[in-house]
């Protein structure tokens, strides 16, 4: 079994001095795509019998996989040596930036190139809208956020770069003038979500976002917070209507009624870093001869990265506008949202364009990653909840959310809306009013991070529900049971979920578990000097973003070997193995060539797009879709727990096409069954077992024989599909071999024998209606967590003694990967609840002085390594894969806080809850 | 003294007052200087032994010199490795050392995390990693964390707790020991201890010469 | 500057002139292209960069290559993740990590492999009682950070490699003692 090769430099020993660091025979290096196509034809495939991942061998062997592994010499056709860039960032956002003094970098340490705002303006670079804000702070302006780049220094040789970065690391050479205070910018978005249910669950809602559309308060003055009052808007306007209902709900909550318990609480959550272990990094080379910009990065949004760079340079004056951009996307050392729509690739591209002919590497060290990497939003939440004392039913819920979006808008508006619409979690509440606003501040930019705002709002909710249970009093699980949204019930936006809602089962599991059952005994028998407490929480998290795409290409060779290409990316979530397993259901064998993060290999579909899928009108969509190649979006980010549900969808559809129009006819041929025979339509009775196709009453056929026959007869041996989901999949019909094939896809190309892919015309395409954009979500998965915590009175030191998480995810494509996600989500929840915190502004990581050691993430010793039980509910019959990567983290956090309350009697209303804080309330 | 009882009582009272006022002064001095001593800022240096010459009372002078030396002894660079428990501390904030490491049976760490795995013979500034050939935790009996200067003083004088050192050995240790000396050259990102090793050594010597008196 | 000679995975390199400020991590990754050794924090906090150092007395320990100078390894012998497999055959630990689904993004894996390998070698010299095994593994691995997995499967993989050869790594059972 071959592992990656290493080519080493032949050292010149005559003088004892190193010669140039070029590798031997660079042309012998395998192409990038080959390194990233795993496990590779002919190599051991641990996934073949479920004994590991597609990428298992490469990762265990330390193969070159991540963007940070690659240097120019590793890439065939690139010049041999790599130059290195240093991105200089402002550690101040309250004084005027007056320039950088590079006097310390004289002589040998001088950079070859310095790029700054003036240079960018000179070449005509444009900032993509998503990243609006100066890419470099111009001289004479106050940086809009701590850590805003001011310059990019490029050093031809590594040693120069290495020496220079040490000289510059105290940051004192970045110069500032007079104090201005922070720059004030408009907020990133404000929304109000209001729902008033009808008199019964079958009656229509009186008001809901699904009916009326989403509303935002009008901008009436330059105030920090919006004016939420209905009177700020024109009477009868959509906002005024929603706000009037909202104010009515709040007025009812303010009325002191003996039969209704009303709790009003604040809850604050902190800024944290995704802390993926591989800092952001990219490698790029502008080949002036071909006018081609080559670059290698690892991002969650590859299509967007390529588009953004194209936009950046799209109107640049010669020679800064490339003719072509060849992007290659690597495996990532973690993502968690922080590598989705990050501005980092823009700087990688600039480094290459400003040092043409030289491959340039730009890499964050960990100080820079803390300073500049996307963070989780800080939330301030103010909530009021009303509960009927007699029935224990929640009557109304009102909340105000304020998010710190940091220096750039990024995903802030979207995080605000997703968080708001998740604010009532698993519950069915007939009157809800939530306002949310994401503010610009001078802090580090906040964007997508696992949980995407719902972690914050559901933590506050589940702690509040715990308080309600305590106050009524009512059993904590019974209270949840009485208020849980039932299947078919309407969510906050007014639409039901379209997938299973298994809250009752999850709550039953929690209730019957020994951790819950024994909570009283454990508390009573806690040793002297120790306190014991048990906490419970239950959360539901959507998967999908409302505009998700899946691109999948599957091919089967004459020997039965399978290759899969997909546009979704690998950041640890196991997409490659999930793809292989889902395709294996159709084609009988686990692929041994799985290539992910491929946005370049679907040309045969000839897709075109226009408009914004979130905001387009139905009329616009209807008109656009008349173009048979039009789709609402071509490729979207790998995010939002969508690997299984979205990422594998198109490949599964493509595999089904190969089965029906390639392998099945080939099998019929081998069995000598005529197409007119009734048996010829028995494809649903077919099953794969141990690489053989089984149909009752017929001889088992091994896959290689079928594949060989399919190739020999020029049947379909490859398929390429695109699908779009706006809370439901697109659908279309295609004529294949005289039949009409209808599937949840909107584009299809097929290949016969060893031919090339040919696009098929689609008929009857149905894209999900645009008013589905009014839904918060239709897809959701549930997870419940129990924790038992032990606290040492004298010190506040805590130990998680036992924990249990139970969740449902539909069909688990790779059960061990799902289990691993749940374990990892638990650990991240522990960190968020008890350990991790970044101060805002000047004391925070924007000052460039933060690293691990100061920032604490969960270690093995913080976790119940042998006492964490994970349970996955079996799927319902024929249930598709759901998404769970986020939900497995969410209930862990409030469960911990609730356990701490149970142990100490003290209710914490902010995160994190650290040992000194616990010690403080116990003394 | 006359046999006058009232006179004697007055004298006693006066002498009590005198002592009380000296104690009060010393306490004020102690508080002020202790407060000053735990300031880890790079401000100022160490006062020279000569600057204490104005304190006539030898014992008081000795104690005052020790209090000045206390600026070094209670500095983060020293206390971080003289912890009360089995885990060192780190940084100006004196947070628990990350990654979590423990003293172990020989003070050089547990099996997988020996001090010398990361801390080499000298500082490595590019990684802000401090180093010294003798990098290790001070033994339990030399723990200073959470102790008053008076307690630290008693401890470092006690041969059962100071590694069997005589007062002369102690002075030499402070004046010349390599690991002690590291505190003044701790490498990038760490404030050096107050003054210099030689200045601290001089104070230690002067303290011993004046009777090695411990502050209260 | 130092004329560095170093043995890596049994092969000699050098002499190579290196600045005294050059980290061992950069020497491996930038000079030699041996990127199996990762860079995570540059501050010896995550140990993604940990390599095995083989000491003259026959013992080994791990070293955070990001926080030590390449020059200080002059004349020394180290092992990196690229040296674990022999003639294309993955080590027991590598196979166990794969079969246990121990890693997810895989970026911390080389560090864990090196640490676990040193643990195995230490246990082979000085076995522990079965009852001490989980604690011994936990102590050995606690310095390594992982953000994806929550550590459980890493620990189980290492435990199972040891339990597959109890005679090599564990003290013989005492009479009546449960394994």
Summarize the structure.
The complex is a heterotrimer of chains A (923), B (216) and C (179). In chain A, 25% of the residues lie in helices and 23% in strands.
Description:
The complex is a heterotrimer of chains A (923), B (216) and C (179). Chain A has 23 helices and 31 strands. Chain B has 216 residues and is mainly alpha-helical. In chain B, 44% of the residues lie in helices and 2% in strands. In chain B, helix 1 packs parallel to helix 2, helix 2 runs antiparallel to helix 8 and helix 6 runs antiparallel to helix 8. The radius of gyration of chain C is 17 Å and the shape is globular. The model of chain C has no long low-confidence stretch (mean pLDDT 96). At the A-C interface, helix 2, helix 4 and helix 21 of A face strand 2, helix 1, helix 2, helix 3 and helix 4 of C.
Strand content of chain B: under 5%
Main sheet: strand order of chain B: 1-2
Oligomer: heterotrimer
* Average of the residue pLDDT scores of chain B: 85
The total beta strand count of chain B reads 2
Measured by residues with Cβ under 8 Å of the partner chain's Cβ, the largest interface is: A-C, 84 and 64 residues
Terminus-to-terminus distance of chain C: 54 Å
Strand content of chain C: 15-25%
Structure classification of chain B: mainly alpha
Distance between the termini of chain B: 32 Å
Radius of gyration of chain C: 17 Å
* Low-confidence spans of chain C: none
Q: Strand order, main sheet of chain C: write it out.
A: 2-1-5-3-4
Considering DSSP H and I runs of 4 or more, what fraction of the residues of chain C is helical? Answer: 25-40%
Helix-strand topology string of chain B? HHHEEHHHHH
Report the order of strands and helices of chain C: EEHEEEHHHHH
Kindly provide the radius of gyration of chain B, computed on alpha-carbon positions and rounded to a whole number of angstroms: 20 Å
Number of H/I helices of chain B: 8
What overall form of chain B do the CA principal axes indicate? globular
**Number of separate helices of chain C:** 6
């Amino acid at each position: 079994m071959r592992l990656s090769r290493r080519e080493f430099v032949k050292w010149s020993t005559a003088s004892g001095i190193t010669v140039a660091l070029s590798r031997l025979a660079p042309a012998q290096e395998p192409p990038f795509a080959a390194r990233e196509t795993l496990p590779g034809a002919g190599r051991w495939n641990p996934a073949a019998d479920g004994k590991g991942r597609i990428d298992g061998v490469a990762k265990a062997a330390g193969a070159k996989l991540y963007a940070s592994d690659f240097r120019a010499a590793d890439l065939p056709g690139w010049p041999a040596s790599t130059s290195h860039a240093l991105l200089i960032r402002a550690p101040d956002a309250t004084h005027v930036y007056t320039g950088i003094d590079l006097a310390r970098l004289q002589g040998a340490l001088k950079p070859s190139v310095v790029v700054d705002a003036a240079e960018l303006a000179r070449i005509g670079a444009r900032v993509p809208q998503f990243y609006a804000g100066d890419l470099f702070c111009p001289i004479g302006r106050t940086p809009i956020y701590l850590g805003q780049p001011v310059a990019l220094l490029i050093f031809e040789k590594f040693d120069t770069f290495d020496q220079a970065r040490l000289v510059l690391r105290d940051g004192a050479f970045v110069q500032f003038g007079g104090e201005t205070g922070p720059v004030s910018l408009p907020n990133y978005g404000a929304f109000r979500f209001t729902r008033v249910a009808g008199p019964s669950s079958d009656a229509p809602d009186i008001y809901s976002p699904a009916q009326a559309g989403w509303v935002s308060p009008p901008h009436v003055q330059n105030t920090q917070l919006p004016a939420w009052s209905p009177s700020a808007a024109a009477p009868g306007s959509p906002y005024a209507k929603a706000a009037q209902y909202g104010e009515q709900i709040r007025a009812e909550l303010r009325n002191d009624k003996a039969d209704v318990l009303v709790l009003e609480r604040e809850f604050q959550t902190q800024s944290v870093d995704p802390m993926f272990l591989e800092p952001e990094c990219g490698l790029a080379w502008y080949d002036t001869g071909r006018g081609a910009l080559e670059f290698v990065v690892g991002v969650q949004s590859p299509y967007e990265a390529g588009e953004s760079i194209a936009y950046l340079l799209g109107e640049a004056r010669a020679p800064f506008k490339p003719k072509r951009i060849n992007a290659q996307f690597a495996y990532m050392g973690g993502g968690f949202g922080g590598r989705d729509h990050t501005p980092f690739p823009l700087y990688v591209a600039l480094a290459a364009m400003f040092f043409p002919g030289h491959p340039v590497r730009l890499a964050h060290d960990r100080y820079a990653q803390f300073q500049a990497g996307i963070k989780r939003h800080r939330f301030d939440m103010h909530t009021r909840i009303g509960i009927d004392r007699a029935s224990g039913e929640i009557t109304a819920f009102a909340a105000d959310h304020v998010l710190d979006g940091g220096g750039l808008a990024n995903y802030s508006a979207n995080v605000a809306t997703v968080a708001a619409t998740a604010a009532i979690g698993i519950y069915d509440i007939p009157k809800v009013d939530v306002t949310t606003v994401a503010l610009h501040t001078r802090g580090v930019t906040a964007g997508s991070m696992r949980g995407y705002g719902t972690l914050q709002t559901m933590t506050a909710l589940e702690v509040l529900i715990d308080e309600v249970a305590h106050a009524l009093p009512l059993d904590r699980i019974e209270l949840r049971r009485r208020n849980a949204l039932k299947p078919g019930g309407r969510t906050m936006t007014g639409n039901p979920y379209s997938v299973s809602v298994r809250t009752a089962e999850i709550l039953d599991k929690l209730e019957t578990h020994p951790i819950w059952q024994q909570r009283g005994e454990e508390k009573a028998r806690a040793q002297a000097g120790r306190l014991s407490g048990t906490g419970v929480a239950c959360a539901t998290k959507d998967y999908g973003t409302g505009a998700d795409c899946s691109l999948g290409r599957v091919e089967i060779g004459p020997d039965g070997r399978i290759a899969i290409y997909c546009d979704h990316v690998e950041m640890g979530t196991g997409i490659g193995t999930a793809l292989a397993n889902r395709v294996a259901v159709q084609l009988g064998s686990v692929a041994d060539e799985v290539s992910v993060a491929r946005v370049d290999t679907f040309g045969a579909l000839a897709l075109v797009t226009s408009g914004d899928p979130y905001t387009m009108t139905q009329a616009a969509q209807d008109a656009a879709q008349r173009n048979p190649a039009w789709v609402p979006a071509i490729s979207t980010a790998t995010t939002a727990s969508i690997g299984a549900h979205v990422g594998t969808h198109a490949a599964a559809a493509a595999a089904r096409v190969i089965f029906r129009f390639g392998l099945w006819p080939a099998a019929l041929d081998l069995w000598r069954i005529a197409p007119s025979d009734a048996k010829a339509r028995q494809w649903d009775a077919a099953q794969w077992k141990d690489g053989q196709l089984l149909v009752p009453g017929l001889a088992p056929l091994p896959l290689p024989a079928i594949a060989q026959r399919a190739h020999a007869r020029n049947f379909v041996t490859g398929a390429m599909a695109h699908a779009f989901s706006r809370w439901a999949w697109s659908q279309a019909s295609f004529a294949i071999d005289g039949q009409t094939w209808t599937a949840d896809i909107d584009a299809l190309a097929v290949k016969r024998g060893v031919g090339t892919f040919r696009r098929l015309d689609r008929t009857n395409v149905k894209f999900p209606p645009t008013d589905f954009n009014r839904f918060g979500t239709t897809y959701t998965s549930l997870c419940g967590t129990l924790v038992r915590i032990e606290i040492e009175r004298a010190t506040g030191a805590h130990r998680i003694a036992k924990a249990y998480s139970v969740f449902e995810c539909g069909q688990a494509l790779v059960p061990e990967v799902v289990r691993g996600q749940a374990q990892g989500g638990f650990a991240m929840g522990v960190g968020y609840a008890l350990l991790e915190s970044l101060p805002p502004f000047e004391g925070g990581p924007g000052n460039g002085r933060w690293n691990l050691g100061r920032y604490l993430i969960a270690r093995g010793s913080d976790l119940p390594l042998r006492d964490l039980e994970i349970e996955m509910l079996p799927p319902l019959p024929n249930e598709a894969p759901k998404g769970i990567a986020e939900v497995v983290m969410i209930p862990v956090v409030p469960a911990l806080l609730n356990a701490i309350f149970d142990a100490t009697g003290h209710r914490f209303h902010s995160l994190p809850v650290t040992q000194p804080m616990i010690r403080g309330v116990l003394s | 003294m006359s046999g006058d009882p009232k006179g004697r009582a007055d004298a006693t009272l006066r002498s009590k007052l005198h002592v009380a006022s000296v104690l009060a002064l010393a306490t004020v001095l102690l508080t002020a200087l202790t407060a000053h001593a735990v300031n880890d800022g790079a401000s100022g240096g160490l006062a020279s032994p000569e600057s204490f010459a104005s304190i006539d009372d030898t014992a008081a002078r000795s104690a005052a010199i020790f209090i000045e030396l206390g600026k070094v002894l209670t500095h983060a660079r020293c206390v971080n490795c003289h912890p009360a428990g089995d885990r060192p501390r780190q940084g100006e904030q004196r947070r628990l050392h990350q990654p979590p490491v423990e003293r172990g049976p020989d003070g050089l760490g547990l099996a997988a995390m020996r001090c010398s795995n990361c801390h080499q013979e000298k500082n490595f500034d590019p990684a802000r990693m401090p180093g010294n050939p003798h990098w290790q935790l001070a033994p339990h009996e030399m723990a200073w964390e959470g102790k008053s200067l008076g307690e630290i003083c008693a401890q470092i004088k006690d041969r059962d707790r100071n590694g069997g050192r005589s007062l002369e050995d102690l002075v030499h240790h402070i004046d010349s020991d390599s690991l002690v000396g590291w505190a003044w050259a701790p490498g990038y990102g760490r404030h050096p201890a107050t003054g210099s090793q030689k200045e601290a050594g001089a104070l230690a010597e002067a303290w011993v010469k004046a009777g090695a008196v411990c502050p209260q | 500057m130092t004329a560095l000679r170093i043995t890596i995975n049994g092969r000699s390199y050098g002499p190579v002139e290196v600045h005294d400020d050059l980290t061992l991590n950069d020497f491996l990754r930038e000079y030699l292209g041996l990127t199996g050794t990762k860079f995570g924090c540059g501050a010896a906090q995550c140990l993604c960069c940990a390599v095995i150092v083989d000491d003259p007395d026959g013992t080994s320990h791990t070293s955070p290559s990001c926080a030590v100078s390449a020059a200080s390894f002059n004349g020394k012998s180290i092992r990196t993740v690229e040296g674990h497999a022999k003639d294309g055959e993955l080590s027991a630990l590598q196979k166990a990590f794969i079969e246990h689904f121990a890693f997810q993004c895989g970026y911390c894996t080389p560090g864990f492999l090196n640490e676990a390998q040193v643990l195995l070698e230490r246990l082979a010299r000085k076995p522990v009682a079965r009852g001490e095994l989980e604690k011994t593994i936990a102590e050995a691995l606690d310095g390594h950070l992982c953000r994806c997995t929550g550590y459980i499967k890493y620990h189980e993989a290492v435990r199972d490699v040891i339990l597959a050869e109890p005679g090599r790594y564990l003290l013989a059972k005492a009479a009546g003692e449960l394994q």
